[in-house]
Amino acid sequence: MKRQDVFQQLIKLKNRMQGLIFVQLALDFIMMYTFIRTVLSGDTVSLFGKIMPQDNATAITFLIAVIDLCFTQIRKNYRKMGRTLIGHLGGQLSEDEIMVIRQFERY
């Protein structure tokens, strides 16, 4: 791959990670909401406008946690791919490349 292609792939990967962080933040909030509602409720729990038994609410909380864990693994793979792309850039880096690399490392 050409140097410019590698740089473009790194930019795309950085943008994906940016979007993924926002999705994961929303999932974290939803998971904490369902967990707190489930723990503080009695036999029936009201989640998202629906009344359900505590067992079902616990299962929903668990499934949201699993989805959140999957997004964490996706971010981990994106970071690994980004490090590989950064390694392919190597040599003298332009200012644009350095800026994108720093932004990527922030995520």
TrEMBL record:
- Keywords tagged on the record: Membrane, Transmembrane, Transmembrane helix
For whether the record's keyword set contains Transmembrane, the answer is yes
Positions of transmembrane segments: 20-36, 56-74
Q: What is this protein called?
A: ABC transmembrane type-1 domain-containing protein
